[in-house]
Amino acid sequence: MARDFMGVGLGLRRAHLEALAQRRDHGVPFWETCPENLIGDGGRQHRHACAILERDPVLTHGLAISLGGFDPWDEDYLKELDRFLVRMGTPWHSEHLCFTSVAGSSLHELLPLPFTREAVRHTVQRTRELQARLPVPLILENITYYAELGQPEMDEGAFITEVLEGAEVGWLLDENNVYVNSLNFGFDPRRWLESMPLHRVHQLHIAGHQKFGALTVDTHGAAVIDPVIELMQWVLTRIGRPVPVLLERDNHVPELDELLAERDRIQDAYDAVLALPVRS
Amino acid sequence: MAGPRLLELQRTLADLILEGEDAADPERLAARHGLEGADQEAIRRASQGLLSYRELARLSLLEPIADMFPVTLALLDAAGARAECLDAFLQARRVNSPHYRDIAPAFLGWLVETGWGQATWPFLSELAHFELLEVLVARYPDGPAGAALRRQPLDADGLVLDPATRLVAYGHAVHRATEEAPIPRAESTYLLAFRDARGDCQVLELSDATAALLSQAATRPIAEVARELGLQDLEATRALLTDLRERGALAGFRSLN
């Protein structure tokens, strides 16, 4: 585990770039940034983002690589990504365990893979291919899903586990996604997590969600609720290591001080857990 | 099935997201993709959840268009044509880039290449282009500094536009269109869009002669072009060009030899 990456970081978003570029006393131990938003971009906001990322520790998190899809790799983009990851000095790079494009058409949504043996084999192969093209270890994030695509041959937990184990990669555990899935599909998130390969967790994501009718959606557009923070504490205790946690906020982004205060609240919860005896 | 089961399942969900309302039936799409009974049944059971992906992905794809093209969409709204236009765009599957910021340019590219709506609104693609122009200029990728350029023009020099600067010509005064009055007057319009010192996009309306000067004096001597265009006061022309350099529109001046 890279030494700099502990505590609760923040996703770097356009709304606060200018203020953060001029502010070193933000207290954020690291930032997470999406390469797709920076590669090939330019202008004032881009310069602010680069200034922050060159000054402070950074983790990278991809949004659009269709890991479980069938489209050929965008080799030009992957070359740019390679250079970007080296330049950022990130210890790992994360992508989502999903598909995002079909027949060259980018859908800009994290779409669920079917929980089938064929999907495991395909995604393991694609993950290995992608890992071979990256200069740092690849880790995969579990997504929220709102429907199973086709007749499942296993449950979500088994699917994630088989891909992570098969591809021999680390896990970016988005515990808000687990919580949201538990609401939509009616299961106990702690019991679900107990059966998962927590030794593979490199990083956590935490975020807010919102309910729309019968469906709870991972919007990243609200404050993190206490049960999700408590689940983070439960996970950290269970893991027994101080893995970095990243607070995601993409919609209804509050003023910077309010966002920093929310990060502080989660950092306090993180620190409180790390003061507890660690499981052997 | 035309392809592996996994691929056909993915095609089914992509079609569910991108096809028109009439085709957005998960079970029918599953059958169309040759999925077998168990998958068809599972998709029927999960219809509501799968349809939520239609809503979420379409929101994601259309949000940058709503943000970037408020006047164009106000025009379409006035004619009740917004949904038809955006449906046609999504069905054309022209969003091919992993960069979210490329969705709006993809929409503009689709408008220009297909000519959608041009018969009714001959200015439509110009209007959309102008709405995107500011962002394209503001976010133009920064490159390495070029060769040393002169800060003041000599008569025999050519001018060099800043790489982010765009000199555009429209047949309509699209820069004066607003959400309240989105139909621009037909008139030749020349605009210079450039980044100022702070990095914000500024847009200047140009006379025909100034537009021609900026276009032609990139490869021919400034004084020669000015004379041809009837710009008799060369000192005033030099002052104009120096001012444009100071404001950020021009990178500078270079010898053409």
In what order do the strands lie side by side in the largest sheet of chain B? 2-3-4
Oligomer class:
heterodimer
Low-pLDDT stretches of chain B: none
Order of helices and strands of chain B: HHHHHHHHEEEEHHHE
Beta strand % of chain B: 5-15%
Q: Provide the spatial order of strands within the biggest beta sheet of chain A.
A: 1-2-3-4-7-8-9-12
Number of contiguous helices of chain A? 10
**And the CATH topology of the domain at 157-255 in chain B?**
Outer Surface Protein A, domain 3
Considering residues with a beta carbon less than 8 A from a beta carbon on another chain, report the largest interface and each chain's count.
A-B, 46 and 48 residues
CATH-defined topology of chain A: TIM Barrel
- Rg over alpha carbons of chain A: 18 Å
Main sheet overview of chain A: 8 strands, parallel, barrel
The unreliable regions of chain A are none
What is the N-to-C order of secondary-structure elements of chain A (H for helix, E for strand)? EHEHHEHEEEHEHEHHEEEHEH
Look at the structure and give the mean pLDDT of chain A: 94
Overview in brief:
Chain A has 280 residues and is an alpha/beta fold.
